[in-house]
Design goal:
With 585 residues, the protein is α/β, with parallel strands linked by helices. The chain has helices at 19-27, 33-37, 101-106, 161-177, 188-193, 199-207, 215-218, 224-249, 261-269, 276-289, 307-320, 332-346, 362-374, 409-418, 438-444, 473-485, 501-518, 533-545, 579-584, and strands at 43-45, 61-74, 80-86, 91-96, 112-118, 120-122, 125-129, 132-136, 150-152, 296-301, 324-328, 353-356, 379-382, 396-402, 427-432, 449-453, 489-493, 524-527, 550-553, 566-571. Residues 288-453 form the Helicase ATP-binding domain.
Length: 585
């Protein structure tokens, strides 16, 4: 019995899908007829009309038709077959570098030819190189033009566009012939409410759009049939995250009420008061940790808004309740910064703060692991090293992750699994300084509750961001000189187009030498990703202590370097960075 659902019909059952074609389809992730239907075109070609030769322009990708006036083999640097066609409005040359004797015979003077290709400027006027073509029989009815735009699909080596179109034609035919061939998961009421077409209608339209529709409109995000598929994909993604959230909430978590003694002691020792926004977020976090369901909360706040204090107060709530708290950061520089802050705040309260990172070796590492496993270390700060198999916690009640976007979901879950104790999962607090619009937060972080610290401490002046042309580099260098001579410090960040750490580091080294020549009176340091951790830490320590005026760096410093005296940052070629990276810097 033939299965009705297209996700159960293998591509191997289609005409023309031999073992080699099936293997190449699998390279693209295409296994079933349903997969073919959701393998959408990248772009389209218009083969629905003939373009007069007299109106051709370089760059046009068009269908042409004309009588062959002359066809000759030209011998030069590269032997080629040239075929000139005319249609009464103009002339076009068709050039073939690779041709057979049969082609040479077929392309003779007087024959009517129809071809498709890209028009370019040749040595003797406009030409097409290796166009697709067909010789039309003068005594036969004219060949019909395509009634729809021709789809161009994402492909792989050995899988031609013609073969992909042949397979998708069969898939589309099955879609139209079979009842309930595809399950449309979006309820009809929701489709009506958002004025969306059916799934079948959207797929048929996008694979074979009617003649006369512009590519710009077809590929636009506002195109209604494309919006139908986008709606379904976002809805499926959102529902998946909600399902994950529901599964997470079914797991028990320890109720971390605490007696507030440590939190009050920390607040009393701080040389500043919390802002209203910090107090609100601290309260939201505390209420979550008071529940038996695991907290999953994202705290978003700009640099300097005080997220670290919020994290420290959450950690103390866990410690007051007899549990450990762990804070993980994506880089050793940032993790070390958090370790120093936590040590400064918590050790006067009688708490041991442990440190764990890849650079910690030998006896020091063993001592740290023992302190974590025994529960002697109540608060732990570290990097990805916290995932490693030899790390075990005594009673982990809270996991804090800084710069969530730098970690995968699986890494976040791995740390939670390490904290499972007697069937209970630790609470999770995620922190980021990257501004996330509410709609994006709902899409990307639907499994998290969101808190926003939308208030900076008093006395902070707004940051000025200015784009300056590279031709004014000398003026920028003078600005850096002025700031540093006035007692401030500055960053100079180098970026590269190539995804190559080696090239980026070479660029940073070259920039350092140039700046040393231009600014001989300043002490200039360099930090990049290929330096040893100890070397990076030493340079950062010098900069933080004020021994360096200017720090040249790659984007290795992107995450969380706390040097209050630095007042200027130069970012070369900022267009090469994403918005999140720029904001982090």
């Amino acid at each position: 019995m033939t299965p009705a659902s297209l996700d159960q019909i293998e591509i191997a059952l289609l005409k023309g899908a031999g073992p080699a074609v099936v293997e190449r389809c699998e390279r693209l992730g295409l296994h079933s007829v349903q997969d073919l239907l959701f393998h959408l075109p990248l772009r389209y070609q218009d083969r629905t009309r003939i373009t007069p030769l007299g109106s051709l322009r370089p760059g046009d990708e068009v269908m042409v038709e004309g009588y062959i006036r002359v066809a000759d083999i030209i011998k030069g640097k590269r032997r080629s077959l040239l075929c000139k066609i005319q249609d009464g409005s103009g002339t076009l040359t068709l050039r073939f570098f690779h041709f057979s004797q049969a082609q040479r015979v077929a392309l003779r003077s007087g024959e009517l030819l129809r071809g498709f290709g890209e028009v370019r400027v040749g040595p003797n006027g406009l030409e097409m190189v290796h166009p697709e073509y067909k010789v039309l029989q003068a005594d036969s009815p004219p060949a019909d033009l395509s009634q729809a735009l021709t789809a161009i699909y994402p492909a792989t080596e050995g899988l031609t566009q013609a073969r992909l179109r042949q397979l998708s034609d069969q898939a589309l035919s099955m879609l139209q012939r079979r009842e309930n061939a595809l399950t449309d998961w979006v309820p009809a009421e929701l489709l009506r409410q958002h004025r969306l077409c059916s799934l079948e209608e959207a797929l048929l339209y996008l694979h074979r759009p009617p003649a006369g529709i512009s590519q710009e409109r077809l590929l636009s995000t506002t195109e209604p049939h494309r919006q139908r598929l986008v709606f379904e994909e976002l809805l499926a993604h959102h529902l998946s995250l909600i399902k994950l959230r529901q599964q997470a909430l079914r797991i028990d978590a320890p109720v971390l009420t605490g007696d507030q003694s440590l939190r009050q002691a920390l607040l009393a020792s701080l040389p500043f008061s919390l802002t209203n926004a910090q107090q609100r977020v601290v309260q939201e976090v505390a209420e979550d940790m008071n529940k038996s369901a695991p907290m999953l909360r994202l705290v978003q706040g700009d640099v300097g808004s005080g997220k670290t204090v919020v994290a420290a107060l959450a950690a103390l709530q866990a410690v007051e309740s007899g549990f450990q708290a762990v804070m993980m950061a994506p880089t050793e520089i940032l993790a070390e910064q958090h370790f120093h802050n936590f040590s400064r705040w918590l050790e006067p309260l009688g708490l041991k703060v442990a440190w764990l990172a890849g650079k910690l070796k030998g006896k020091a590492r063993q001592q740290s692991l023992e302190a974590i496993a025994s529960g002697e270390a109540r608060v732990i700060v570290g990097t990805h090293a916290l995932f490693q198999d030899d790390v075990s916690f005594a009673h982990l009640g809270l996991v804090i992750i800084d710069e969530q976007h730098r970690f995968g979901v699986h890494q976040r879950l791995a740390l939670r699994e390490k904290g499972m104790h007697q069937g209970k999962a630790p609470h999770q607090l995620i922190m980021t300084a990257t501004p996330i619009p509410r709609t994006l937060a709902m899409v990307a972080y639907a499994d998290l509750d969101c808190s926003v610290i939308d208030e900076l401490p008093p006395g902070r002046t707004p940051i000025q961001t200015v784009v300056i042309a590279d031709q004014r580099r000398d003026a920028v260098i003078e600005r850096v000189r002025g700031a540093c001579m006035a007692g401030r410090q500055a960053y100079w960040v180098c970026t590269l187009i190539e995804e190559s750490e080696v090239l980026e580091c070479q660029a940073a080294e070259a920039t350092t030498e140039q700046l040393k020549e231009a600014l001989p009176e300043l002490k200039i340091g360099l930090v990049h990703g290929r330096m040893k951790a100890t070397e990076k830490a030493a340079v950062m320590a010098e900069f933080k202590a004020g021994d360096l005026h200017l720090l040249v760096a790659t984007t290795v410093i992107e995450v969380g370097v706390d040097v209050p005296n630095a007042s200027v940052m130069i970012i070369e070629n900022p267009e090469r960075l994403g918005l999140a990276q720029l904001h982090q810097l």
